[in-house]
Amino acid sequence: MLQTTKRPDSSISIIGAGIAGAWQALLFAQAGHAVTLHERGDAGMTDATSHWAGGMLAPRCEAEVSEPIISRLGLRSLDIWRRELPDTPFNGSLVVAHPRERNDFERFAGMTEGHRRLDAAGLAQLEPSLEGRFRDALFFPTEGHVEPRRVLPKLHERIRAAGGTIRFGSDVAVADLDGIVIDCRGLGARDEQPDLRGVKGEMILIETSEVQLARPVRLIHPRWPLYVIPREQNLFMLGATSIEAEDTGVSVRSALELLGAAYAVHPAFGEARIVEFGSGLRPAYPDNLPRIGVRGDRIAVNGLYRHGFLIAPALAELTLQYVERGQIDNEVMQCA
User: Fold this and answer.
1) What counts of helices (H) and strands (E) characterise the chain?
2) How far is CA 285 from the centre of its chain?
């Protein structure tokens, strides 16, 4: 059985330096464990699912399409993000819709909590670039967002500062390692978890100085929600599709949908420069819910689906509580 009393000098090996593994490594290192984080890719992490993520920290918005456990984990994660990376932007998020999606907009409002309805003047005051574009909006003031390609290196730096070791180019198997091993390989773990599948999420990165946004804007869409997420240096990420396919790249249909929907948010996006197309495969179980699986001293953290940046901190906290105190969260953890 796994030792469940605190061992400050215990060895913890974590496989996978994406968002799930990085948060595991950080919290365990801060708790005094000897942490080694293994990543088969290089420090650029360009092959990781995290590289293509939106980075939205929006548990209230996600309540419209997700199970309550996602909201619970997400709300807890917001506190951890604020504690560990206090410069994380928490400017809230906006939900808007054009008249033809009015019914869907009202349904969204009825299925979510923690928002404030803004009229056109209130929306213009909050986001001047959207003046005159929508008659009202839902404002979720407690939500935030991060830029994955910038925040992941920050987490890696924090791991090293806490005494952890990161080994890039380290393609190890769970069986190769001694002590407690936490498997955060995502789809790479299908050798041991065949019920995992990949769900493609596509994104487009565009650049324009004609629009200024301080927070993500979600446009109600008849097929999928469009997120316009501000980045630094006049960049905006457009996403996010969820396609039951494991190929890579962005389809013509998705590109047309994403770019057309962005134009519907603001016509100036029609003159923006396209910087990048890309997609990532999100690891998901059949129920699309996250799981912490425990078999002796082997722990698997997987199935974060489209909520990786939102729920990874809370999952790491649950894993740490189990290792140190034997505490089990029955909604998330499965012990063999």
Assistant:
1) 8, 17
2) 16
